[in-house]
């Protein structure tokens, strides 16, 4: 199984690199080939993988990948909700 770890192109500090490396190594232990790609790379390329582990806030890119049929974790909807707490709380208030 092949996956893409999608990360933010501009977050290059050591703490992010260490986290990304840990995720790749953990996936490898589970028999998953996880390749790191940035949001800028996938904005210009097609995603040749079985799934995308989405570690960015680019909702539009997440939606585009979902529309191409790829399973995306975290989904565009979850990214949008987590990025806008007021959106979530107003939706919850509407449900009452």
Report what the structure shows.
There is one protein chain. The chain has 96 residues and is an alpha/beta fold. 51% of the residues lie in helices and 20% in strands. The chain has helices spanning 14-29, 39-44, 59-67, 76-83, 85-94; strands at 2-7, 33-38, 51-55, 72-73. It has a four-stranded parallel sheet with strand order 2-1-3-4. α1 (14-29) links the parallel β1 and β2 (33-38). α3 packs antiparallel against α4. It is globular. The protein starts with a strand and ends with a helix.
Structure summary:
The protein has 96 residues and is α/β, with parallel strands linked by helices. The chain contains 5 helices and 4 strands, in the order βαβαβαβαα.
- What proportion of the residues is helical, as a percent range? 40-55%
Order of helical and strand elements: EHEHEHEHH
Count of DSSP-assigned helices: 5
User: What is the approximate shape?
Assistant: globular
Indicate the low-confidence ranges by residue numbers: none
**Radius of gyration from the CA trace?**
15 Å
* Largest beta sheet: strand ordering: 2-1-3-4
How are the secondary structure elements laid out?
Blueprint: E1 2-7, H1 14-29, E2 33-38, H2 39-44, E3 51-55, H3 59-67, E4 72-73, H4 76-83, H5 85-94
Parallel strand pairs: 1-2, 1-3, 3-4
Defining traits:
96 residues, alpha/beta, 4-stranded parallel beta sheet, 5 helices, 51% helix, 20% strand, globular
């Amino acid at each position: 199984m092949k996956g893409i770890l999608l990360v933010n192109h501009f977050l290059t500090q050591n703490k992010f690199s260490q986290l990304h490396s840990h995720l790749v190594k953990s996936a490898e232990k589970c028999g998953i080939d996880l390749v790191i790609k940035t949001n800028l790379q996938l904005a210009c390329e097609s995603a040749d993988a079985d799934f995308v582990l989405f570690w960015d806030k680019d909702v539009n890119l997440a939606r585009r990948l979902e529309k191409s049929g790829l399973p995306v974790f975290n989904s565009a909807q979850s990214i949008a909700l987590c990025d806008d707490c007021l959106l979530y709380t107003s939706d919850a208030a509407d449900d009452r």
